[in-house]
Design a protein that fits this description.
Radius of gyration: 17 Å
Number of helices: 3
Distance between the termini: 42 Å
Structural class: alpha+beta
Low-confidence stretches: 1-6
Order of helices and strands: EHEEEEHEHEEEEEE
Mean pLDDT: 77
Number of strands: 12
Strand content: 25-35%
Largest sheet: 6 strands, antiparallel
Helix content: 10-25%
Amino acid sequence: MVGRRGRCRTRRSAHLVDHAHEAPARKSLARDLLQAQIPYYLPQVPKTSSIRGRKYVSYVPVFTSYVFVFGNNFERHFSLTTNRIAGYLSVPNGDELTRQLFDLSRLIGAGVPMTVEGRLKAGDRVRVKSGSLAGVEGTVLARCRKCRLIVAVNLLQQGVSVEIDDHLLEPIELARPKP
């Protein structure tokens, strides 16, 4: 499910979200899940820092405190026995969460500059129609005359945004109930 740099790689039907309370516990939880071969996703982005003139790259989580676990009840129970979890959230719409995490993974993999967004604003739902991000869905947010696409993880009410040319976007027609 996850690589060292946080690439989302699999689709499983049972979806649960772990809430790890501290950074060391989150990394230890990820190691425990990897050792037990339990699929998880810890989205991370590179952060470059300079110490005494030397550049270092570290990987920081996109969503602090969250590790996404994709598993059944046994795998859920195992993750709880690690004593590294402050709480567990059930996911009401696992397919939607999976799609959103795959879109997030594609953005991370594309290496485009991102801004982590807190509470999401209402806006038009769009899909990228061409280029390396074709098919990624999100919500448009305009700031300072520049178009930003928010790829949301609705369960957390957070997401990331990227600057994108508006001509690359097409509106998504939302299905309307038949009368």
